[in-house]
Amino acid sequence: MRFPYLRFALIPIVVAGLSILLAVTTRLEQERQYDVLQALYESHARSAGRMVREAAQEATWSTGLVYSMSAESAALLLELLGPPGTGEDCAALTSRIPYLAIWAARDTNDVRGCMDRVPVGSRLAFVDGVLAAPDGDFVEDDRTRELGVFCAWTRGESVATVVCMDRGHLDEIRLEVGLGPLLADLKDRDLEYVVVQDPGGILAASPAPGRISTWDNDPVLAQVREGALDGLQGRMLDRDGQTVYEVIGPLDLVDGTRAVVRTALDAGELVRFRTWISHRQALMAGVLGGVVLLSIALAFVMGRAVRRRREFVDAMRRREEEGRHWQSLGQMAATVAHEVRNPLNTIGMALQRLSREIHVDPADDAGFHDLLAMSADASDRVERVVSEFLELGKPLDLDRRAYPASALVQEALASLAMRAVGEGKTLEIRCACSGDVIVDRQRFGQVVANLVANALDAVGPGGIVTVVAECQPGTFRVVISDDGSGMDAATLSRVQEPFVTTKAHGTGLGLPLARRLVEAHGGTLVLNSQQGVGTHATLVLPAKET
Length: 546
What we know:
It contains 14 helices and 16 strands. The chain has helices at about 5-80, 90-95, 125-130, 140-145, 170-175, 180-185, 220-225, 270-355, 360-395, 405-410, 415-420, 440-460, 490-495, 510-520; strands at about 100-105, 110-115, 150-155, 160-165, 190-200, 200-205, 235-240, 240-250, 260-265, 400-405, 425-430, 435-440, 465-470, 475-480, 525-530, 535-540. The longest helix has about 90 residues, at about 270-355.
């Protein structure tokens, strides 16, 4: 019996399994695509960072070569000129060597030589400042830059010689091969910035990088610069809501120190792809969840349909069996009635004749008439059983018409209300339905009267029987309650079977007949009872003809 429902329960399980498998495989494929795209993007960023680093290193070496050549030129000039004398012709010398700007000698007393670019009062301090440089091959500081020169010096036994050359050509070469021109020429729509940075700060940058990390708050910079991380180091950064991929590489400077080159590319496309994957996964989860819910609903509907079909088939089978049962019962009832009623009529006439014609001793007259009355009652009881038995077996032909519900209930219970008063019992009737109901008037009255009569039989003097009738959407409902002794579950389960009764003089046919009449109207009759509490009979009929 449970196998069909188990079969339908497998539908959402299979759908859920397939949905999970689809979701997992789709997620794995999307993650694989993202990993491939990220790998390609990182490879592109590393290639760009490597190219920028190599170009920066070439520019640095080129600048260093220019400085080295300038230092060699200054050293050669120092060797050729030697220390100046006291009467040197500076004009003639500068005309022969145009790039010579300063030629001076410093002895223990003073300075001498060609120093037209230096103010008279500052010449001694200037020469002493140049001589104070630790490396005499190439001197470049604020004083020399202010005068537009770079210098070299050498010391003899008693005199030191200083030569300064015009730095105009040096600056021109630096503008062509230095880091500044290199970074200025870097242009790409995905390039966010290129920064050359050392612990002192930014040495060169293009374009403006904005706020970036420093050596103090970014340990990766120091690790790359100090060689702890070989080659290039890549990482994702979030800068003011914008995601970039930054490649960091070491850069050797002319002075022998090391800086880092930071090349950052826009990673917005990678972020957008990740967001797209997340949205697609959320959408798929919602769709698959909806499919699973629909499969659950489908399984529930199909299971419910199968159950209802099975219940319908079972009900039809029961009705067919009941039809055959009632048909057989009707045939048997007709035969029994024919065979029983004739003797009953004879017995009845005989009792009437005995009552009229037979006279007994006055002392026995009371007992004689009591015996006749008991015989008549027994004959009437047999007649009633035969009549109810015939009623059960007859085909039902209902004459259904519209009647006011309240008047219908009051009419069916009029005689029972008088019986309740006579027996010292209370019958409360409450009808909250003002509309019409479509029923067979005689059959409806028979059902209600039978149920209320049973309730009155179940209560003793002072007992209360309540009848509540109400109209609900599409139905007419009558509830009959009593405060009698009630029935246990075993008795309640059998009381609607033919010839089963809890009354001393009951036939056991009233409730089966009532249930048959209710079902013929398309309604239901439900009994609920509890020992020591009472019994409730609920009669529900369709308000319209079905």
